[in-house]
Amino acid sequence: MKARPASPSLRSALGGLALAALASACASIDHTRETQTSGTFRSEAWAFTVLQWDFPAESSQIARDNAFDAGLPNLRIDLQEQSPDWGWWNWVLDILSFRKTVLTGTWGYDGEDLRRELAGD
């Protein structure tokens, strides 16, 4: 029995489905409480880049939005790492790539910050 080639509409549908799967992003956030009013966080996001368009947005923007949407008070970003980072050769990654961004930082008020906030300084 000879297999028939897939119809053009089926190939288009499968291609669109594959593109939609690749264009999706993934994000996560973990926060750890260190005192009753403060702690640390780690926000991570992935995005797909094709011809300098990031889908659905830049991974750094997704990670920041994810961290700020968590509603943690007094959020401070201490470190932002984006990978891969090829320095001058990053333009190659703008053609076709997956990018990952990790943000780490602190949230809340430690004792000294809380005293300053309550004193109105």
Question: Uncertain runs with pLDDT below 50, 5 residues or more?
Answer: none
Per DSSP, the total helix count is 4
End-to-end CA span: 83 Å
User: Over all CA atoms, what is the radius of gyration?
Assistant: 21 Å
Determine the strand fraction and express it as a percent band.
35-45%
Compressed to H and E, one letter per element, the order equals: HEEEHEHEH
Number of beta-strand segments: 5
Total domains, how many?
1
SSE class: alpha+beta
How much helicity do the residues have?
A: 25-40%
Oligomer: single chain
What number is the mean pLDDT?
A: 79
Report on the architecture of this protein:
The protein has one domain. It is built from 4 helices and 5 strands. 33% of the residues lie in helices and 37% in strands. The chain is an alpha+beta fold and 121 residues long.
In short:
It contains 4 helices and 5 strands; from the N terminus they run αβββαβαβα. By secondary structure, it is an alpha+beta fold. The protein has one domain (25-119).
Which short descriptors sum up this protein?
121 residues, alpha+beta, 4 helices
Which SSEs are present, and which pair or pack?
Layout lengths: L7 H16 L2 E8 L4 E13 L2 E3 L3 H11 L6 E8 L6 H4 L2 E13 L2 H9 L2
Antiparallel strand pairs: 1-2, 2-3, 2-5, 4-5
